[in-house]
Design a protein that fits this description.
five-stranded mixed barrel, 30% helix, seven-stranded mixed β-sheet, disordered N terminus, 671 residues, 33 strands, alpha+beta, OB fold (Dihydrolipoamide Acetyltransferase, E2P), 16 helices
Length: 671
C-alpha cells in the first residue's frame, strides 16, 4: 500500500487524478521521497532521481506519472521547487587550495555544497559553520553556497539551539540590507505625524508584561470620563508605520512570520532596532500606536468604540507579578485603576465562557538557566488574574477589529482579511474521547457545536482537583482542531467568537501587521483587495507551526539536559501518553516527559494496547497502565543528541500493587 496520511472528510471527496499538485516533500532516512498534498488520500512517491534539486521540507510542484489502482500507490516526479523550507544549514567545511565543500549535518540524504574560496567568510578547513545555499543550476551536480558564520564548536547548547531553528527554516541573522533599512529609521515623531493621530499622551497608560520582556507591544489606558463611565484604550505598537510593503524589512518579516521563543533566546521577527526601540512601548516615551478605545460602564457594557492611529505615552511598566500582588493585597501603584480593569476582565471572562468559549486551564514550563544557558531548575507558571486581565482586553480588541472589517464589502463580496479561525472538534477524535469521559461519569451532548462546548466546560469544572483532571484535559485538547490564519471566516470555536483576528502583537506576528494595513485602508474608506492574501495566510500558519515545533524541541533539549544529573534516581510521575510500544510518563516535580518502553515491562507481563481506553493491559497478571495514572519511575537514560529521556517503571510497595490490582478487578467486573 502507499503511505497513508491523516485525512479529514473533505480529503475523501478528492480524487487522486493526474496532473500537477502543490505539496511538501518528506524525505525518509533511506532517501525515498513522498510529496504530501492536501486533499489527496495518498502521498505521492518520488524517487531520489526525480527530486529535481528539492530537499526535505520544501514546497514543490509534483506531477503524478502513474497510479496503481490495486495498491493505491501514486508515483510522481517533482517539476519545480516552489519554496525552500530551509536556506541555511549547519555543517563542516572541507577546504582545498582552490575550492571548498560544505557537508551539511542532516539525517536526510543531502548533497554537499560547493563553496568558492571568495565565499568562505574567514572559515578554515574543519570549521563548524553555517552555510547558505545561493544557487543550484540544472547543469550543476552540487548546489553553490556561501559561509554565513563560523560556529564555536565548544558550545554544544548554542549549536543545538541554532540547529533546531535552522532545521525548521528560520534564518539566524538578518541580511545587511534589512539591517541597513532598520538602522536608517529615526525615533523622531514629527508635528505633522502627530496631527494625523489622536493624541492620548495625557491619559494614564501602562504596560503589563513578563519580568524578562524587552519588547512591549501593547498597553492599556484608563480614565473616568464621567461618573460611572470609563474610557479604556487598548494600544498596540504601530509597526506598520515603520515596516512598509515591498521593502527588504517587510520581506524578512514575512519570511519569518513570527518570533521564536526558545528557553535561552528569542529569534525576533524584526531587528531589535524595531522591536526593542522604535516600536516598544517603553515607559516615559512618546510612541506611535494603533488603538481600540472603548467607552464602558463598570459592568463592562461597551457603549461606544473608536478605532484608529494614536500617539501614547506609557506612565509605568508593570510586570505580571507586580499586578498580581496589587490584586491580592489591594495595595500599590494605580490601585483603583488596576482593580477596576481586573474586575472588568473577570466579567468579560465569565461572559465568554457563558457564550460557549472552552475553559481549558494552561500551565507553562519555564527554565531557570545559568550564564551558559544550562538549566538550574524548572518552574511551572499558571495563568493568574494578572495574566487574564491582559488576555481579556487583547481578546476584546482582536474581536472588535475583526467585527469592524467583516462588515466591509467590495463588489458585494466580503473584503479578504486574515482571520484567526478555529474549527469545531474533529468527529473522529471527539467520539472516542466522549466514550472515555463517560467512563468517569461525564456525559457529553454532541448534538450541536454549542452543546459540545457546554459539555466540555461542565466536565472541566467537575474534574478540577480530581485525579482524572490531567488526563481528561490533555485528551480533550487533542480533540481540538488547530487554530490557523485564513480569509475564510468560520469563526473561532474555542473562544466562542464569530469574528476574530490577531491585531495585538505586530512586533512578533506578521498577520497582525497585515491586519493593521487592511484596517487602516478600511478606516480611510478605501478598502482594497490584498493580492495573494490566502497564500500568505497559509505561509504564516506554517511558520507558526514551525515555531511551535522549534520551541517544543528546544524545551525537550533542556529537559534532557536537566535530567542528566538524575540518572538512576526515582521520581513520582503521571502517565501522559500510551502507545503500543510503551507509555510516556511526566515527572510531577519537573514536568519532564520520558518513555517507559514495553521491553522494560516484559519481566512483569505481556501487554496489549487498548486504544479506546488509552491504556496498556497485561495479558496474564492484569497489570494496567492508563493515561493519567500515577507511577514511580527511574531515570535510566538522557540522550541529548536525540533529545530523548528513557524511564523505567518502578514496582512499589504492596499498597500500590494492591491499588493497581483493585483497579484491574473493578474493570473486569464492569464497575
Amino acid at each position: 500500500m502507499g503511505r497513508k496520511k491523516n485525512k479529514d472528510k473533505k480529503s475523501k471527496k478528492h480524487s487522486t487524478g493526474g496532473g500537477t499538485h502543490r505539496g511538501t516533500l518528506d524525505v525518509t532516512r533511506s532517501g525515498m521521497g513522498y510529496v504530501v498534498v492536501e486533499g489527496l488520500q495518498e502521498d505521492i512517491l518520488v524517487r531520489p532521481s526525480d527530486f529535481r534539486h528539492a530537499f526535505h521540507g520544501d514546497t514543490v510542484e509534483v506531477e503524478i506519472t502513474s497510479s496503481n489502482k490495486r495498491s493505491g500507490r501514486l508515483n510522481g516526479i517533482i517539476t519545480r521547487v516552489l519554496e525552500r523550507r530551509q536556506s541555511e544549514y549547519m555543517g563542516t567545511l572541507e577546504v582545498t587550495s582552490d575550492f571548498a565543500f560544505f557537508l551539511p549535518d542532516s539525517d536526510k540524504p543531502m548533497p554537499d555544497f560547493f563553496i568558492p574560496v571568495n565565499a568562505l567568510n574567514g572559515a578554515k578547513d574543519g570549521d563548524r559553520v553555517v552555510a547558505r545555499m545561493v544557487s543550484w543550476n540544472e547543469s550543476e551536480k552540487n548546489p553553490k553556497g556561501m559561509v554565513v558564520s563560523v560556529l564555536d564548536g565548544t558550545d554544544q547548547n548554542d549549536l543545538a539551539m541554532k540547529d533546531i531553528l535552522m532545521q525548521r527554516g528560520f534564518p539566524l541573522n538578518f541580511d545587511d540590507d534589512v539591517m541597513e533599512e532598520a538602522l536608517r529609521m529615526s525615533d523622531h515623531i514629527s508635528t505633522e505625524e502627530i496631527s494625523r493621530r489622536r493624541d492620548m499622551r495625557d491619559v494614564l497608560t501602562f504596560t503589563i508584561d513578563p519580568l524578562d520582556a524587552r519588547d512591549f507591544d501593547d498597553a492599556l489606558s484608563i480614565r473616568e470620563i464621567r461618573k460611572g463611565t470609563w474610557e479604556i484604550g487598548v494600544h498596540i505598537a504601530d509597526v506598520s508605520h515603520f515596516v512598509t510593503p515591498e521593502t527588504a524589512l517587510d520581506e524578512a518579516a514575512y519570511e519569518r512570520a513570527t518570533s521564536v521563543y526558545l528557553p535561552d533566546r528569542v529569534l525576533p521577527m524584526l531587528p531589535e532596532k524595531i522591536s526593542n526601540e522604535l516600536c516598544s512601548l517603553r515607559p516615559h516615551e512618546d510612541k506611535l500606536t494603533f488603538s481600540c478605545v472603548f467607552e464602558m460602564n463598570a459592568k463592562g457594557e461597551v457603549r461606544q468604540t473608536w478605532i484608529g492611529r494614536t500617539i501614547t505615552h506609557s506612565n509605568h511598566r508593570f510586570t505580571y507579578e507586580d499586578v498580581q500582588q496589587i490584586i491580592e493585597t489591594e495595595d500599590g501603584h494605580y490601585l483603583r485603576e488596576i482593580l477596576l480593569l481586573n474586575e472588568l476582565a473577570q466579567r468579560f471572562r465569565k461572559e465568554r465562557f457563558k457564550r460557549g468559549a472552552i475553559n481549558f486551564s494552561s500551565q507553562e514550563v519555564r527554565f531557570r538557566l545559568d550564564e551558559q544557558g544550562r538549566p538550574l531548575g524548572i518552574v511551572v507558571k499558571e495563568s493568574k488574574e494578572s495574566h487574564q486581565l491582559i488576555e481579556e482586553f487583547m481578546l476584546l480588541a482582536n474581536r472588535t477589529v475583526a467585527e469592524r472589517v467583516s462588515a466591509v464589502t467590495i463588489d458585494k463580496k466580503s473584503l479578504p482579511f486574515p482571520y484567526r479561525v478555529h474549527d469545531r472538534p474533529d468527529e473522529e477524535k471527539l467520539l472516542p474521547f466522549v466514550a472515555f469521559a463517560r467512563k468517569f461519569g461525564h456525559p457529553f451532548d454532541t448534538k450541536t457545536p454549542a452543546s459540545i462546548a457546554s459539555s466540555f466546560n461542565s466536565m472541566l469544572e467537575a474534574v478540577r482537583g480530581r485525579p482524572e483532571q490531567h488526563v481528561l484535559e490533555q485528551l480533550g485538547i487533542r480533540t481540538m482542531a488547530k487554530a490557523a490564519y485564513t480569509t475564510e471566516n468560520i469563526g473561532h470555536y474555542g473562544l466562542g467568537f464569530e469574528h476574530y483576528c490577531h491585531f495585538t502583537s505586530p512586533i512578533r506576528r506578521y498577520p497582525d501587521i497585515q491586519v493593521h494595513r487592511i484596517l487602516q485602508d478600511v478606516l480611510d474608506d478605501r478598502p482594497r483587495v490584498m493580492k495573494k492574501l490566502e497564500q500568505q495566510c497559509r505561509h504564516c500558519s506554517e511558520r507558526e507551526r514551525a515555531a511551535m515545533e522549534s520551541e517544543r524541541a528546544a524545551n525537550k533539549y533542556k529537559q534532557v539536559e536537566f535530567m542528566r544529573q538524575f540518572i538512576g534516581d526515582e521520581f513520582e510521575a503521571v502517565i501522559s501518553g500510551v502507545a503500543a510500544f510503551g507509555f510516556w510518563a511526566e515527572t510531577v516535580d519537573h514536568k519532564c516527559e520520558g518513555l517507559v518502553s514495553l521491553l522494560s515491562l516484559q519481566d512483569y507481563d505481556e501487554f496489549r494496547h487498548v486504544e479506546a481506553d488509552y491504556c496498556l493491559v497485561g495479558r496474564r497478571g492484569g497489570w494496567t497502565f492508563r493515561m493519567g495514572d500515577k507511577v514511580r519511575i527511574k531515570v535510566i537514560s538522557a540522550n541529548l543528541g536525540r533529545r530523548q529521556l528513557d524511564y523505567e517503571w518502578v514496582l512499589q510497595s504492596d499498597t500500590t500493587d494492591g491499588e493497581n490490582r483493585s483497579r484491574r478487578r473493578k474493570k473486569r467486573d464492569g464497575a
